[in-house]
Amino acid sequence: MNSNLIRAVIMGAPGSGKGTVSARLVKTFNMHHISSGDLLRSNIEQKTELGRIADKYIKEGKLVPDVYITQCILGELDKIRTSSWLLDGFPRTPEQAEDLWQAEKIDTVINLDVPFDVIIDRLKSRWVHLPSGRVYNIGFNDPKVRGVDDITGEPLSQRPDDNPAAVRKRLEIYDACTRPLNEYFRKKGVLVTFSGRTTNEIWPNVKKYFDGKFR
Ligand code: G5P
Ligand code: MG
Prior knowledge:
By secondary structure, the chain is α/β, with parallel strands linked by helices. It has a domain at about 5-115 and about 180-215: P-loop containing nucleotide triphosphate hydrolases (Rossmann fold, 3-Layer(aba) Sandwich). Helices cover about 50% and strands about 15% of the residues. The chain contains 9 helices and 7 strands. The strands form 2 sheets. A 5-stranded parallel beta sheet has the order 2-3-1-4-7, with helices on both faces. α1 packs parallel to α9 and α6 packs antiparallel against α7. The chain is globular and about 45 Å long. The site of magnesium ion has 4 residues, from α1.
Protein backbone atom coordinates (compact mmCIF):
# COMPACT_ATOMS: atom_id res chain seq x y z
CA MET A 1 0.00 0.00 0.00
CA ASN A 2 1.20 3.54 -0.82
CA SER A 3 2.43 5.05 2.48
CA ASN A 4 1.69 8.60 1.22
CA LEU A 5 -2.02 7.92 1.42
CA ILE A 6 -3.99 9.99 3.94
CA ARG A 7 -6.67 8.25 6.01
CA ALA A 8 -8.45 10.92 8.01
CA VAL A 9 -11.66 11.40 9.96
CA ILE A 10 -13.42 14.72 10.58
CA MET A 11 -15.63 15.01 13.65
CA GLY A 12 -17.64 17.77 15.31
CA ALA A 13 -21.18 18.67 16.29
CA PRO A 14 -23.96 18.90 13.69
CA GLY A 15 -23.40 22.14 11.77
CA SER A 16 -19.84 22.63 13.05
CA GLY A 17 -18.61 22.84 9.45
CA LYS A 18 -17.47 19.27 8.75
CA GLY A 19 -18.84 19.35 5.21
CA THR A 20 -17.41 22.82 4.53
CA VAL A 21 -13.91 22.00 5.84
CA SER A 22 -14.06 18.62 4.04
CA ALA A 23 -14.71 20.32 0.69
CA ARG A 24 -11.60 22.49 1.21
CA LEU A 25 -9.45 19.51 2.30
CA VAL A 26 -10.57 17.37 -0.62
CA LYS A 27 -9.73 20.15 -3.08
CA THR A 28 -6.34 20.93 -1.52
CA PHE A 29 -5.13 17.41 -0.71
CA ASN A 30 -6.82 15.31 -3.40
CA MET A 31 -8.79 12.98 -1.16
CA HIS A 32 -12.03 11.04 -1.52
CA HIS A 33 -14.77 12.49 0.69
CA ILE A 34 -17.13 9.98 2.30
CA SER A 35 -19.94 11.66 4.23
CA SER A 36 -22.19 9.24 6.08
CA GLY A 37 -25.04 11.78 6.05
CA ASP A 38 -24.73 12.36 2.26
CA LEU A 39 -24.65 8.59 1.70
CA LEU A 40 -27.79 8.08 3.76
CA ARG A 41 -29.60 10.98 2.07
CA SER A 42 -28.68 9.56 -1.33
CA ASN A 43 -30.10 6.16 -0.24
CA ILE A 44 -33.31 7.89 0.85
CA GLU A 45 -33.51 9.69 -2.51
CA GLN A 46 -33.00 6.38 -4.38
CA LYS A 47 -35.53 4.62 -2.12
CA THR A 48 -33.16 1.76 -1.22
CA GLU A 49 -33.78 -0.56 1.74
CA LEU A 50 -31.16 1.36 3.79
CA GLY A 51 -32.80 4.64 2.79
CA ARG A 52 -36.20 3.40 3.92
CA ILE A 53 -34.76 2.45 7.34
CA ALA A 54 -32.67 5.63 7.72
CA ASP A 55 -35.41 8.10 6.75
CA LYS A 56 -37.37 8.12 9.99
CA TYR A 57 -34.26 8.26 12.21
CA ILE A 58 -32.80 11.20 10.27
CA LYS A 59 -36.04 13.22 10.24
CA GLU A 60 -36.24 12.94 14.03
CA GLY A 61 -32.56 13.85 14.45
CA LYS A 62 -31.72 10.39 15.85
CA LEU A 63 -28.80 8.15 14.93
CA VAL A 64 -29.29 5.34 12.44
CA PRO A 65 -28.50 2.04 14.26
CA ASP A 66 -24.82 1.00 14.13
CA VAL A 67 -25.49 -2.26 12.32
CA TYR A 68 -26.70 -0.50 9.14
CA ILE A 69 -24.29 2.41 8.98
CA THR A 70 -21.05 0.60 9.87
CA GLN A 71 -21.49 -2.01 7.16
CA CYS A 72 -22.28 0.70 4.62
CA ILE A 73 -19.21 2.86 5.45
CA LEU A 74 -16.71 0.00 5.67
CA GLY A 75 -18.05 -1.20 2.30
CA GLU A 76 -17.40 2.26 0.79
CA LEU A 77 -13.85 2.35 2.18
CA ASP A 78 -13.20 -1.04 0.64
CA LYS A 79 -13.91 0.41 -2.82
CA ILE A 80 -11.19 3.11 -2.52
CA ARG A 81 -8.27 1.17 -1.01
CA THR A 82 -5.68 2.90 -3.24
CA SER A 83 -6.81 6.50 -2.58
CA SER A 84 -6.51 8.99 0.25
CA TRP A 85 -9.81 9.47 2.06
CA LEU A 86 -11.62 11.70 4.50
CA LEU A 87 -14.47 10.25 6.53
CA ASP A 88 -17.09 12.82 7.59
CA GLY A 89 -19.84 11.97 10.12
CA PHE A 90 -18.60 8.47 10.94
CA PRO A 91 -17.93 7.22 13.59
CA ARG A 92 -20.52 8.63 16.00
CA THR A 93 -20.80 5.95 18.68
CA PRO A 94 -18.20 3.95 20.66
CA GLU A 95 -19.18 0.80 18.72
CA GLN A 96 -18.65 2.52 15.36
CA ALA A 97 -15.30 3.93 16.54
CA GLU A 98 -14.08 0.51 17.67
CA ASP A 99 -15.19 -1.20 14.44
CA LEU A 100 -13.46 1.46 12.34
CA TRP A 101 -10.26 1.32 14.41
CA GLN A 102 -10.12 -2.47 14.01
CA ALA A 103 -10.75 -2.28 10.25
CA GLU A 104 -8.55 0.66 9.14
CA LYS A 105 -5.32 2.44 9.97
CA ILE A 106 -6.35 6.01 10.87
CA ASP A 107 -3.66 8.70 10.52
CA THR A 108 -5.55 11.60 12.04
CA VAL A 109 -8.90 12.62 13.53
CA ILE A 110 -9.77 16.31 13.09
CA ASN A 111 -12.21 17.59 15.69
CA LEU A 112 -14.05 20.88 14.99
CA ASP A 113 -15.00 22.67 18.18
CA VAL A 114 -17.62 25.38 17.48
CA PRO A 115 -19.97 26.82 20.15
CA PHE A 116 -23.59 25.58 20.02
CA ASP A 117 -25.06 29.13 19.83
CA VAL A 118 -23.16 29.70 16.57
CA ILE A 119 -24.35 26.35 15.18
CA ILE A 120 -28.03 26.90 15.99
CA ASP A 121 -27.93 30.21 14.11
CA ARG A 122 -26.17 28.72 11.09
CA LEU A 123 -28.49 25.81 10.54
CA LYS A 124 -31.47 28.15 10.14
CA SER A 125 -29.88 29.58 6.98
CA ARG A 126 -28.53 26.38 5.39
CA TRP A 127 -29.67 25.45 1.89
CA VAL A 128 -28.56 22.23 0.19
CA HIS A 129 -28.52 20.61 -3.23
CA LEU A 130 -29.56 17.17 -2.08
CA PRO A 131 -28.39 15.09 -5.09
CA SER A 132 -24.77 16.33 -4.84
CA GLY A 133 -24.52 17.28 -1.15
CA ARG A 134 -23.43 20.85 -2.06
CA VAL A 135 -24.14 23.16 0.86
CA TYR A 136 -24.82 26.91 0.98
CA ASN A 137 -25.47 29.37 3.79
CA ILE A 138 -27.09 32.74 3.37
CA GLY A 139 -24.53 35.42 4.21
CA PHE A 140 -21.56 32.98 4.27
CA ASN A 141 -21.44 31.07 0.99
CA ASP A 142 -24.52 32.22 -0.90
CA PRO A 143 -25.52 30.50 -4.15
CA LYS A 144 -24.95 32.74 -7.20
CA VAL A 145 -28.73 32.83 -7.72
CA ARG A 146 -30.90 32.64 -4.61
CA GLY A 147 -32.55 29.20 -4.20
CA VAL A 148 -30.64 27.59 -7.10
CA ASP A 149 -27.59 25.24 -7.19
CA ASP A 150 -24.53 26.90 -8.83
CA ILE A 151 -23.53 23.85 -10.89
CA THR A 152 -26.77 22.19 -12.02
CA GLY A 153 -29.23 25.09 -11.80
CA GLU A 154 -31.58 22.79 -9.86
CA PRO A 155 -33.61 24.08 -6.90
CA LEU A 156 -32.10 24.06 -3.40
CA SER A 157 -33.99 22.79 -0.36
CA GLN A 158 -33.70 22.85 3.42
CA ARG A 159 -32.79 19.59 5.16
CA PRO A 160 -35.75 18.00 6.96
CA ASP A 161 -33.55 17.61 10.05
CA ASP A 162 -32.65 21.34 10.17
CA ASN A 163 -35.97 22.20 11.90
CA PRO A 164 -35.49 23.49 15.49
CA ALA A 165 -36.75 20.29 17.24
CA ALA A 166 -34.49 17.99 15.19
CA VAL A 167 -31.48 20.32 15.64
CA ARG A 168 -32.00 20.27 19.43
CA LYS A 169 -32.16 16.44 19.35
CA ARG A 170 -29.03 16.18 17.15
CA LEU A 171 -27.03 18.42 19.52
CA GLU A 172 -28.23 16.40 22.54
CA ILE A 173 -27.20 13.14 20.88
CA TYR A 174 -23.86 14.65 19.90
CA ASP A 175 -23.17 15.54 23.54
CA ALA A 176 -24.24 12.13 24.84
CA CYS A 177 -22.86 9.72 22.19
CA THR A 178 -20.32 11.38 19.92
CA ARG A 179 -18.42 13.97 21.98
CA PRO A 180 -17.02 11.15 24.23
CA LEU A 181 -15.23 9.73 21.16
CA ASN A 182 -12.79 12.65 21.38
CA GLU A 183 -11.36 11.00 24.47
CA TYR A 184 -11.20 7.60 22.69
CA PHE A 185 -9.17 9.06 19.79
CA ARG A 186 -7.07 11.24 22.11
CA LYS A 187 -5.95 8.07 23.92
CA LYS A 188 -5.10 6.50 20.54
CA GLY A 189 -2.86 9.55 19.88
CA VAL A 190 -4.58 10.70 16.67
CA LEU A 191 -6.94 13.51 17.81
CA VAL A 192 -6.35 17.16 16.86
CA THR A 193 -8.91 19.79 17.92
CA PHE A 194 -9.49 23.08 16.08
CA SER A 195 -11.64 25.67 17.86
CA GLY A 196 -13.31 28.78 16.48
CA ARG A 197 -16.57 30.53 15.64
CA THR A 198 -16.16 30.54 11.85
CA THR A 199 -14.78 28.16 9.23
CA ASN A 200 -12.55 30.90 7.87
CA GLU A 201 -10.93 31.15 11.30
CA ILE A 202 -10.50 27.35 11.61
CA TRP A 203 -9.50 26.45 8.04
CA PRO A 204 -5.96 28.02 7.93
CA ASN A 205 -5.01 26.00 11.04
CA VAL A 206 -6.37 22.76 9.57
CA LYS A 207 -4.49 23.39 6.33
CA LYS A 208 -1.28 24.18 8.18
CA TYR A 209 -1.61 20.96 10.18
CA PHE A 210 -2.20 18.85 7.04
CA ASP A 211 0.70 20.59 5.23
CA GLY A 212 3.01 19.73 8.12
CA LYS A 213 1.86 16.15 8.52
CA PHE A 214 1.26 14.98 4.95
CA ARG A 215 3.35 17.09 2.53
P1 G5P B 1 -24.88 14.47 8.78
O1 G5P B 1 -25.30 14.80 7.42
O2 G5P B 1 -23.52 13.99 9.03
P2 G5P B 1 -24.49 16.38 10.91
O3 G5P B 1 -25.67 16.70 11.77
O4 G5P B 1 -23.40 15.67 11.56
O5 G5P B 1 -25.19 15.74 9.65
P3 G5P B 1 -24.17 18.56 9.29
O6 G5P B 1 -25.50 19.12 9.65
O7 G5P B 1 -24.00 17.95 7.93
O8 G5P B 1 -23.72 17.59 10.37
P4 G5P B 1 -21.62 19.87 9.10
O9 G5P B 1 -21.29 19.03 7.92
O10 G5P B 1 -20.80 19.76 10.32
O11 G5P B 1 -23.16 19.75 9.49
O12 G5P B 1 -21.61 21.39 8.71
P5 G5P B 1 -21.67 22.13 7.27
O13 G5P B 1 -22.76 21.58 6.45
O14 G5P B 1 -20.31 22.22 6.69
O15 G5P B 1 -22.06 23.59 7.79
C1 G5P B 1 -23.34 23.85 8.32
C2 G5P B 1 -23.89 25.13 7.67
O16 G5P B 1 -23.09 26.23 8.12
C3 G5P B 1 -23.81 25.15 6.13
O17 G5P B 1 -24.91 25.87 5.63
C4 G5P B 1 -22.50 25.91 5.84
O18 G5P B 1 -22.52 26.57 4.58
C5 G5P B 1 -22.51 26.90 7.01
N1 G5P B 1 -21.20 27.37 7.46
C6 G5P B 1 -20.03 26.70 7.56
N2 G5P B 1 -19.08 27.50 8.08
C7 G5P B 1 -19.68 28.70 8.34
C8 G5P B 1 -19.24 29.94 8.87
O19 G5P B 1 -18.06 30.10 9.25
N3 G5P B 1 -20.17 30.94 8.98
C9 G5P B 1 -21.47 30.79 8.58
N4 G5P B 1 -22.32 31.81 8.69
N5 G5P B 1 -21.92 29.64 8.05
C10 G5P B 1 -21.05 28.61 7.94
O20 G5P B 1 -25.90 13.40 9.43
C11 G5P B 1 -27.29 13.58 9.29
C12 G5P B 1 -28.01 12.45 9.98
O21 G5P B 1 -27.67 11.20 9.35
C13 G5P B 1 -27.59 10.15 10.31
C14 G5P B 1 -28.08 10.76 11.63
O22 G5P B 1 -29.48 10.61 11.68
C15 G5P B 1 -27.69 12.25 11.46
O23 G5P B 1 -28.45 13.11 12.29
N6 G5P B 1 -26.20 9.70 10.42
C16 G5P B 1 -25.78 8.71 11.22
N7 G5P B 1 -26.43 7.90 12.09
C17 G5P B 1 -25.69 7.01 12.78
N8 G5P B 1 -24.34 6.91 12.67
C18 G5P B 1 -23.65 7.70 11.80
N9 G5P B 1 -22.31 7.59 11.69
C19 G5P B 1 -24.37 8.64 11.02
N10 G5P B 1 -24.01 9.56 10.10
C20 G5P B 1 -25.13 10.19 9.75
MG1 MG C 1 -22.35 17.54 6.81
